[in-house]
Amino acid sequence: MSEFLVTCVGLTKRYGQKEALSKVSLQLAPGRIIGLLGPNGSGKTTLIKLLCGLLQPTEGSITVDNSPVGPRSKAVISYLPDRMYYADWMRVSDLFDLFADFYADFDRERAENMCLSLGISPSDRIKTMSKGTKEKVQLVLVMARRAKLYLLDEPIAGVDPAAREFIMNTILTNYDEKASVLISTHLISDVEPVLDEAIFLREGQVVLHDSADALREREGKSLDALFRDVFRAQTYEGGAL
Amino acid sequence: MLGKLLKYDFRSMGKQFAFVWPAVLVLALVNRFTFGGLFQEGAADIGLPGQMATGVTFLVYWAVILATMVLTLVFIIQRFFKGLLGDEGYLMHTLPVKTWQLILSKLLCGMAACIISILAALLSVLIIVPVPAADLLGFWPELFRALGSQGVNGILAPLELLLLALAALAQCCLQLYLAMAIGHLFGKNRIAMSVVAYLAINIVMSSLFSTAAASFAALIGEQVTELINQRMEASVWGVWHSAVGLMLLGSAAAAAIYFFFTERILRRRLNLE
User: Fold this and answer.
1) A-chain residues near B8 (CB < 8 A)
2) Per residue in B244-262, is it b (16+ CB within 10 Å) or e — as a string?
3) Which residues make beta-bridge pairs with A198?
4) CB pair distance less than 8 Å for A71 and B272
5) From CA B111, how far away is CA A81, in angstroms rounded?
């Protein structure tokens, strides 16, 4: 029995010739809020999809809660994808039914209360909702589970600052403290205050992985400033011949 | 877990066909009084407007029947493509269920949609041209008696045909699923690649079956011919039993192969980019 919630060993994912993730090995402990930080195309979404079984690794292995990726690991993972994943015919109550049917850790009462506080009725149809409301419903579904691992793929990308605050508050006030939360984002300043740990990904490789405090102390700067240093784009400066 | 998956797939089917299946029956009922009325004894001359109305309602009926069949095919394809390989797949593949359960749920639901559509179409014909219950019920004992006199088992024979129809339906659905599963492995043009895969499966399977049949015939050709001749002489049932049995075996084998590879692709090579 490993003390770690997630263990990845030599994880590689190739799409044809392109290597999206290259020999990633990491261990994540329970009870941590972890930032998966990197620019677009650095492999954040690929790593999250591998953890929840939407992609299969080309090489390497993953265990979540001491199980390989499969029905047992999926039962303890609550995943927020970067897109809407429900069928249009459904009402909010259908989604609650579905989650209650498949996930033993789904807290329906909590989900209903969260929706009520947002002014969303269980009888509302998904089809008639705005994109923002659909995203909120999805967040409610994910955070109303008492999961061991929350995988949140870009939860604050593409939303206004007020919505960002709402999303971060929802995550922080609803996740189980014994669980770990892995948040992928490139908007570091919004998540930095809550992070216990940070993983910096660049071109499919882990370039930094440590506790947030240790990184700040060692580098003498905030994670946001460190991110800018690590991922500063190499601008073409031209130059005289 | 399969039961729970079926619950949601059947609810999705209910939403999709909520208007179409009743529409078929309602239009059949309308046609019973318009088109069906023409064949009743002592039918009055309905004149040109009446004939035009009859023609239009009959055309609408056929259009809805056609739409139902197309919708059924689209439903079978779409529930798999969108439900497992599209955005909805992000939910379905993260549920704590096994891959074979996801596929089997789609298959059973797709087959049920097809069967209900066919039954609705058959029922609509009976509504338009009503056959007295006595004729309808009296037909079967007569058929069984006739078959029985030829040595055909009147219960087993229709049962075998029913099984063959179900196996063939499963084979058709699973061929579509396998083609889509292969198509999704490609980074681009997934729909086009699914169509190519469908055609390729057709070619491979038909050449495989013809090769197998030819080898089998070459191997024990004479004995088989002799056996068939003997059976033909012995009973029609023997020939029926052998022919339907072989077709059933072929369909079931093809369906099992398609299911096996579809499951393997989705479990080991799932690629929801």
Assistant:
1) 98
2) beeebebbbebbebbbebb
3) A35, A210
4) no
5) 31
Say yes or no: B11 contacts chain A, CB-CB below 8 A. Answer: yes
Interface touch B15/A89, C-beta < 8 Å:
yes
Give per-residue pLDDT as tens, B89-136: 999 999 999 999 999 999 999 999 999 999 999 999 888 877 776 676
Q: How confident is the model at residue B194 (pLDDT cuts 50, 70, 90)?
A: very high
Percent of chain A surpassing pLDDT 70: 95
pLDDT at B233 over 60: no
| Residue from B90, B185, B270 whose CB has the most chain A CBs within 10 Å, to mutate | B90
> Which contiguous run of DSSP H or E holds residue A149?
strand A149-153
A75 three-state secondary structure: coil
Q: Count chain A–chain B contacts defined by CB atoms under 8 A.
A: 61
**Bridge partners for A206 per DSSP:** A201
Contact B90 A74 (CB under 8 A): no
Where are the domains positioned within chain A? 1-75+194-229
Task: Tell me which residue has tokens 């037909």.
Answer: B139
B8 and A98 in contact by Cβ < 8 A? Answer: yes
CATH 1.50.10.20 at A1-75+194-229, yes or no: no
* Amino acid found at B176: L
d(Cα A193, Cα A212) in Å, to the nearest integer?
9
**Residue B151's pLDDT band (boundaries 50, 70, 90)?**
low
Residue A39 C-alpha, separation from nearest chain B C-alpha, in angstroms: 18
Interface predicted TM-score (ipTM)? 0.88
Q: Is-above-0.95 flag for pTM?
A: no
